[in-house]
Amino acid sequence: MIKSENIMGILQPPVPETDEAPENDVTNNTITLPLWGRLHFVRDSQGQLFVSGVVAYWMFGTFSTIFVLLHPAYEDGHVSLPVVYGFYAVSGLCLLSLMRASLTNPGRIPSYDFSKHAETGWTLCQRCNRMRPPRSHHCRRCGQCVMRMDHHCPWINNCVGEDNHFAFVQLLVYAFLLGFYSFILLMCHFWVFPKCNSCNRDAIYIKHGIWFMYVDFLLALNIMFMMGVMVTQQHFHLIINRTTIETMLKPPKAKEITVRQTYTAYRELCGRGLPLFWWLPIGRRRPLLPTSHSQNV
Length: 297
Ligand SMILES: [Zn+2]
Ligand SMILES: [Zn+2]
Description:
Blueprint: E1 6-7, E2 10-11, E3 30-33, E4 37-40, H1 45-75, H2 81-103, E5 123-125, E6 130-132, E7 137-139, E8 144-146, E9 151-153, E10 158-160, H3 165-191, H4 204-207, H5 209-239, H6 244-249, H7 262-270
Antiparallel strand pairs: 1-2, 3-4, 5-6, 7-8, 9-10
The structure holds zinc ion (ZN) (2 copies).
């Protein structure tokens, strides 16, 4: 039997030569759309309802800010063009990272035979009947094992794991920034900008604009608070190299906590490539092995 390569005491699974998913990597959650190709879409009606709510939240927040506040303020000369484009950019990046986190397989165990590479720490999933590396868990909602599973998030209708954790963190950051951006604009709208001159006062969204702005204000406050808490929690977990599920199953004692370098933690999360591109929810993530499969507990 050929012994598999073991670097730093961590088992290395065989890495496929190609970035393309092989044909037999199709799961029950795989859908194929024209132009988009193959996507991961979890068939869970409750999760689909939750993610639809998130998209509706984004649409209301974005469109009410643009049409009731930003465009009239720009036409009246209260804000400059970079402020308008800045809002478009943050809002677009927020939606892109939501799609990326939701429509990416969170970390499927590859279909090649891992069992012959199994060593201590590898376990057999009773449901998938497949060997899986340490830190993998089976998710009932997704119906699959997920490598380095963090948790199942109903708001994105997907698990957060090895292959989409970076997109999830991007989503938290962009959602926070979008809430913060809207909050600042709303404060200016309420306290600084005079009433709009150039806007069409007959338009229904301008006529009832104040109610759009009140709701927008509550949404912005809520998302800033929620995302602020989540980003802090995710950052803390990243630097101590633990997942949410690991902390829930076995909360660490203070003396067990070791803090690693922030750069190392984010490089493992975002993969190889320039740090400048770590925050762009486009392009393919190239995992940084073997640390991304390292065992913590
Ligand atoms: Zn499984
Ligand atoms: Zn899941």
